[in-house]
Amino acid sequence: MPFADVLFSPVVLGLLGLCIGSFLNVVIHRLPLMLERGWRMESADVLGLTHEEAAPAITLSTPRSRCPACGHAISWRENIPVASWLWLRGRCSACRTRISARYPLIELGTAALFALVAWKLGVTPLSLLWCGFCAALVALAGIDWDTTLLPDNLTLPLLWAGVGSAALGWTIPLSDSVWGAIAGYLSLWSIYWLFKLTTGKEGMGFGDFKLLGALGAWLGWKMVLPILLGASVIGAIVGIGMKMSAALREGRYVPFGPFLVGAGLVAFFAGPERVLGWMGWPH
User: Fold this and answer.
1) pTM, whole model, 2 decimals?
2) Whose CA, among 1, 92, 113, 264, lies 20 to 30 Å from 102?
3) What are the distances in angstroms from CA 59 to CA 34, 144, 153?
């Protein structure tokens, strides 16, 4: 079997997805803390604080991962994707505090997405490009769900990577990508201002504009409306369900980003012809 067939096979990319998913767990947890530290450092002089008093140093690699309950440093044996969580039975080895099942689920979900990319695209280096697209979306969905924040550190590079990939002839025609980015951003921007002028309230964050613009840059302008409609319907159903079950606290709202991500992934894997067929629109 040729080496390329093995390298870009669903099994190998799925295993890569497990490892990337473990890293995404770190990104989802630490990137908002890193951004918060940056904001605090910017205001440290005004508050009369040193930078370390304002916010302790944190990066994606330091300090070492620890149990939030007891401070136990996590060893490499306890950090193997999925396997370690199963071996530890979902608990810290030191204090037996429960470890959220979300960690292995993100690892397994990323692995499944990477394997599906290989299955959809076949043996091609472009699979790695689309795996990167999926990984960025997983990170954005996790961060937005936790913090209602869609960081520019991820949305803007994702948008420009979509336009750049189209310009290099790797994905869709460049005109479709550019108009997709424009349509994605302006559609939610228009809804935002219409809602604000009508109610005086902000219905969503600017990060949602940029995320839909990024999805349009990767998938084309024809996919923008189906993604928006799909995300709106599923988001409304989930929000109503959480409200009725008291899972949504008063004054809080369900972030829209995860539903845009989900609809964007469905649009990618289903393909434009199938999605437009579902909508009853011409291809």
Assistant:
1) 0.91
2) 264
3) 6, 19, 14
Three-point CA angle 221, 227, 230, nearest 5°: 155
Nearest to 102 by CA among 74, 141, 158, 70: 141
Helix axes 257-270, 224-244, angle to 10 degrees: 130
Task: Give the tens place of pLDDT for each residue, 217-273.
Answer: 999 999 999 999 999 998 888 878 877 776 665 556 789 999 999 999 999 999 988
Give the 3-state secondary structure of 62-120.
CCCCECCCCCCECCHHHHCCCHHHHHCCCECCCCCCECCCHHHHHHHHHHHHHHHHHHH
- 124: alpha, beta or left, given left = phi > 0 and alpha = psi -120 to 50? beta
Count the alpha carbons within 13 Å of 161 in the hemisphere toward its beta carbon: 16
* CB of 150 closer than 8 Å to CB of 257: yes
Q: Within its chain, how far is the Cα of 267 from the centroid?
A: 15
pLDDT at 141: 97
Q: Are 75 and 93 in contact (CB under 8 A)?
A: no
SS3 content of the chain, % helix, strand, coil (to 5): 70, 0, 30
Amino acid in the structure at residue 65: S
* CA atoms of 94 and 281, how far apart (whole Å): 57
Give the Cα separation of 123 and 11 in Å (integer): 12
| Closest to 208 in 3D by CA, of 190, 189, 227 | 189
Exposed, middle or buried, 50 (CB in 10 Å: 0-12/13-18/19+)?
exposed
Residue with tokens 């604000």: 196
Dihedrals φ, ψ of 41, to 5°?
A: -65, -35
